[in-house]
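Re: beginner question about structure tokens

> Can someone show what the tokenized structure looks like for a real chain? I only ever see the sequence side.

Sure, here's an example I had lying around. Input first:
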Amino acid sequence: MRTSFFAAALSLTLSLSEMACAAPADTLCSDQPARLAARAGVYVTAPLIERVRQTRRWDLGQQGLPNGATELRVGADGSVGIAWNWHESAVLGREIPHGCLRFDGDQVRLQPDDLSKAGPLLRIAGLAGAADAPYFALLFSGCYRASRGGERWCFEPNRVVIAGRPRPATLKLDLSELPAGGSVLEVAGEDRFWLFVPRPDGWAVYRTTWASAPGYREPDWAQPWQLLKRAP
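And the corresponding structure tokens:
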């Protein structure tokens, strides 16, 4: 069985954590970009990752999180981007005049304290790939058989391969204006979103659009567009 992207990332994170556990915590500020660059990567509030793993739903992963930063991206140039539920964002040293990051092993905490109400953030990925890549891989992996047409659907990093044909896909991270009920993918060449709702043996897939669109109606939950059952 192929190791999932997230399992590999988690294994690497734990290994790094073990190596770093004896090292003292290090505080770096927005006026130290050269040193921050050495910590480049994507850091996410840990409760979100755990909830997404448990529920297999991106929308439920963001429910009930403490106020505070949801994601940090430390760039290769030492810039620090902060996202709040991927709906609002800021850059340390720009929109936020000054701030610091306290690194402790594989975790980081924003300072001053009013920026870090969500608690520590966990490093889950480097900077390679699209912005949604770590979360797409957390939700989607493996192969399935479609109820209509019988095609084989396989998930790869940021794409769905259907009957051998790759379709680039993006997980919509910002939930505002999106329909609830699961995880929404924007798939290349499609004029509607694909909404994935987990089932014990796979996924129910619905075609939908922005919840804010004029005349929007919820999908008919009893009539999925496709049912995907896990395949060997």
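Each token stands for a local structural state, so reading them left to right follows the chain. The first strand starts at residue 26 and ends at 29.
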